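Proteins fold reproducibly. Look at a sample protein:
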Amino acid sequence: MALLLATPGSALTCAGDCDGDGAVTVDEIVAMVTIALDLEPVDICRSSDRDGNNAVEIDEVIAAVSFALNGCPSSPTATPAVPTATATQTPPATCAAAAPAVTTPKASSACVALPGMFVDCFETSGLDVGPYQGQNGAAVADIDGDGLPDVFLWSSSGTARLFRNLGHDMQFESIADSAPVWLGEATVIVAAFGDLDNDGKPDLVVSVNNEPIKVEGAIDSQTDAAYPCDGVARNAFSNHVYRNLGGGHFDEVTDAWGFSQRAPEPGDSTVRRGLSLVDLNLDGRLDVVEFRFDPDTRPLTFLSQPDGMTWREAGRDVFGDARGLTWNVFFTDSNHDQLLDAFVLNDYWEDAPSKWYVRTDRSVTYEERDLSPLFGTAASGAPMGAATADLNGDGELNLVVTDTGDQHVFSSGRNVEDAWNVKQNPSRYGIQQNCWSVAVIDLENDGKPDLFFTCAGFEKGWPDRATSFVLRNKGGTFQPAPGVLPNEDVPTWEDGLAVADFDQDGRLDILTGGEGSPPRLLWNQIPAGHALALRLKGRRGNAQGIGARVEVKAAGLPMQVREMFPGGATWGYSDSQLLFGMGAATFATVTVDWRPAGGAGVQTVELPPGATVIEEP
């Protein structure tokens, strides 16, 4: 076979464009296949190896086929950067010699479906906030009311942008001039959507670093201090709140809504590692809990005020001594008393273990409880992400927690990870499985919720390896589900996670956040039964029904129970739409308990499969 060599040093922007002419031909796809089969070396077509692992995988071949059918995206070296509302990383005076890192959104093209599995559509989606030397993540919500989940995507070494879902083939477009958050020198650390003012439009809460973090710099994980170019530590973090005005436009209301007024603890910075939006004071409006990765700092809580327009810091004593290397503050009604309890998930630190706080009454009062082995007086493991669902059909919620080593499941106060075959330790590489986030996904919509875990090592280049994986629910126990993820035998560096039914076909899709690597947009193409897709609209309770408990009963299927809580992942916030598998059932009985969401009662309705909004009476 003739060698299809691109000019050394040329900008190869299109997977499979071996000769760099801006198009992918049949011969070039054939060349890729021969590389994938180990019949030719990867050097004959360097552009086919998108991830630089000296191999060609199926998703790279699929991307090349897509480019052959729809054309290659425009090369950033040939097209001037279009001025958009992007975070241009302008260096400080000490880095004047370095060029600003300005990125132009990638052109989108149709993702090629591959029935029977998840297909990675990130390369062709139009989503792009690179470069991706640090962490990246996403918050997802329908920001413009068209029924399609949109994406706020960020990279700690790149930019941050809002992307509108175009509603077909996993395609997105960048929304220009949507808010000042991605103007100027700002690096997004974490973000979450929530309808704070109950106007039916999800608002955006963002934690940013106002100093640019250049590629040649670093981040001190203990202090969150940026060292850009000159080696001088800077601690210039802030949190911003943006009101959704509709149509993809946002207005900053940080000061007007009271979020800039806070009383830092000694040694505290204002940066947060994560956000949870729930109605803590049960007044029908979401409150904001911020937490950070610091063994001496406790979560910071902002409670909505009686004026209906502002929030005020409630101090650090809401959850007691909840300090630690906190990855998550996860809320769930763990004892079914219509009050949300809190699990504070801390990375391992001897003097700051993970904690479980049970709410005792409708005032904002919590008591610490023990849930062995993770939550108690002694540090154990390094829990990072959490999710809840009724996994065994008994009508009670189970808690799934990710960890370094064993993955955990708690049922009725018992750790059942061994009995249910969930712990998955060691990994397929014979070493401990280091997982960060988990999502509940019903692969076949058979009413038995399955689990997806994002996994990564501790740091690029270390010998530890991990791979994101899916566990299929077999009705009482779980089994690995091989063949449903692309490149499943290749180590992953995924910690962030957001899930949504991006194409509204009744199957949950996945957007992962990478660590030193691009995200993956996993399009669900697994054959499945009917689904019931629910959004909630609170009246007395908060507008999105965050915290509400939803029970679904359908003929021939196990009982299903979920909670409306989009948080729980590291570097990710999911869409506030719940999907329930209905198999071949033609209707379901749905019961919504609005009380944990600040509402007043319980509502039962009969619904057919499809997308529905349930309004609180």
Notes: The first helix runs from residue 26 to 36.
